[in-house]
Amino acid sequence: xxxxxxxxxxxxxxxxxxxxxxxxxxxxxxxxxxxxxxxxxxxxxxxxxxxxxxxxxxxxxxxxxxxxxxx
Length: 71
Known about the structure:
The protein is mainly α. The chain has one domain (about 1-65). It has four helices and no strands. The longest helix has 30 residues, at about 20-50. The mean pLDDT is about 80. Keywords: Membrane, Transmembrane, Transmembrane helix. It comes from Salmonella enterica I.
């Protein structure tokens, strides 16, 4: 946090305005790419780990869990 504060003190608004395309565009692109890769990894992991189950099994589990007195 202190490092971000120090960087903020040393950064001129004019310099930030000149670098706005690379700073904000690159940051947005990085977030989209990383989010997509993490999403694909999670989908792959869900297919591998939960490949033998379907929604009916999950519904039966929840139904049994609730009727056992657990909320």
